[in-house]
Every structure is written in structure tokens, then in C-alpha cells.
């Protein structure tokens, strides 16, 4: 072998490839140097915290909206949509379950007799 071997390319230290948390697994540059296990743990904590923050914000906004609506004095004037829906759906249901019109039987009579 030639004692003067020239290596081409790049070299990466083993410590550069390891997870930044020091768990012993290999990290990934896309995951900020963390391995898949540590990335999932960190990402799950971040996601859980974001969900809790969003829920708290939604509850606070709901309370503010209810307080603003109650102070405006419009609560009595608001119509109830359920009562108007029941009257419009009953005729449709009745129409679906009634027998077919008689003119239809006369039309089909020519085909069968």
C-alpha cells in the first residue's frame, strides 16, 4: 500500500453525529441535532403546551363575548332557531312517507297491460 494515501471528501466527528441531549442515539440536522426519540419528546411537550394555551385563550374569549353580549341587553330579542326548524321539517317527512300520486300509476299502466 502506498503510505501516502489521500482521502477525499469530508470528515465528520462522531460527536457531531450524536444526539445533543447525550442519550446515545444519533441526531439529525433537520431535528436540531436531536435523535427521533428526543425530538418526539420535545415536540410533544411543545404541542401539549400550545394546546393548553389555545384552550385557555378560547375560554377567556368565550367569557368576554358572553359578558359583552349580556351587557348589550339583546338577550331577550334573540329568536330561537329550534322552533322555526321543527315546523319546516314535518311536512317534508310526511311527504316522504305518503303513497305515490295516482297519475303515476296511470302512466305505468300502459307499460304493464
Automatic annotation (TrEMBL):
Superkingdom of the organism of origin = Eukaryota
Which Gene Ontology terms cover its molecular function? DNA binding; zinc ion binding
Q: Which residue ranges does the record annotate as region Disordered? A: 63-91
Instruction: Recite the UniProt keywords alphabetically.
Output: Metal-binding, Zinc, Zinc-finger
Compositionally biased spans, kind Basic and acidic residues:
73-85
In terms of Gene3D superfamilies, this protein maps to: 1.20.5.4770
**The species this protein was found in:** Cyprinus carpio
Name recorded for this polypeptide = RAB guanine nucleotide exchange factor (GEF) 1, like
An example Pfam family from this entry, by short name, is: zf-A20
Q: For the A20-type domain, which residue ranges apply?
A: 13-47
InterPro entries associated with the record: Znf_A20
Q: Which SMART domains match?
A: ZnF_A20 (SM00259)
Recorded hits in SUPFAM superfamilies, A to Z, give:
Glucocorticoid receptor-like (DNA-binding domain)
